[in-house]
Amino acid sequence: MTTFVSLNAGGATARIAPDWGARITACTLEDAHGARQAVLHPYPESEAHRPDHWGKGGLYPLVPFSGRIRDARLRRPDGDRTLVPHPGDAHALHGIAQRRPWEVVSATDRRAVLQYRHAPDAHWPWAFDAGMVVQLEPHQLRVDISLTNRSEEPMPAGIGLHPYLPGAMPLHIAYDAAAAWPTDADFLALPTPPAEAIHTHGLGGSDFAGRDCTVFHPRWQQRATVQGITGTAIDLRAEGALDQLIVHRPPDGPYVCLEPVSHMPDAFNLHDVPGTGTRELRPQGRLAGGLVLSI
Question: pTM for this structure?
């Protein structure tokens, strides 16, 4: 049995499960007319939470990397580092922080501050601190994520946020971004960056019907709109280091994921390839970004 942190602001509500990797399991906002609308597809709270086979819903942090790392191996000039592959997969996936309990530093009716302190282990061989601040207002949910390198040497670093938005059809998504980065069958970035020009992208209808839709954009304007079957359009805005975007919707799924992240999948192994978002954090260096969902 886990303990939840509940936030309330007017008619808006949000629930956070610190022990479940700081997941926001549900969020409902209030539109300009006072109508309440879910902006997250709910996490299945009634099911047993499994850290390595998590339920699909809510929102969780991606720290210290997002996506997959090929063969669960970091290839570095000072020697390779072997990570733990995701169960049933050859690759490491989505970092370690969302699999571990987080500490609640403080909580009020509208704001919660959470922290995860990582000691080096087989999943990630460097020490780091991750922080997440969740702020609720009647019309918006704000989530800020940060990563600080607490080791004594530089480390590759990435952050992201993984929201599941309501995705029932008909559905239309719009955003401005560079072309999608080419990936292989395992959704690992290939060493061939796309053109840098920004274009308006619209996804809906045939892009989603009966098939998997997964695209990776190395540059975007940090804003998207999601118009679903009912209710007001959801506006998604990212800030800081979350300057890349992943869009995912499974075949005929009830949710769609718009994940603002700091790097492409397997970016840390694409040495000398421009635009991957790879960052090396020096000791005590910090990486930060934010996401705002509003209606």
Answer: 0.96
Average pLDDT over residues 271-283: 96
Residue 198's domain is classified under what CATH number? 2.70.98.10
Task: Report the Cα–Cα distance between both ends of the chain, in Å, rounded.
Answer: 32
Whether residue 23 contacts residue 4, with contact meaning beta carbons closer than 8 Å, is answered with no
Q: Map residue 152 onto helix, strand or coil.
A: coil
Q: Peptide bond before 254: cis, by omega within 30 degrees of 0?
A: no
How far apart (Å, rounded) are the C-alpha atoms in residues 281 and 156? 6
Dist CA 108 CA 131 (whole Å) = 17
Q: How many residues does the chain have?
A: 295
**Residue 108 buriedness (CB in 10 A; 0-12 / 13-18 / 19+):** exposed
Q: How many domains does the chain have?
A: 1
Structural domain that includes position 46: 5-294
Amino acid at the residue 140: Q
Q: Give the C-alpha separation, 196 to 275, whole Å.
A: 9
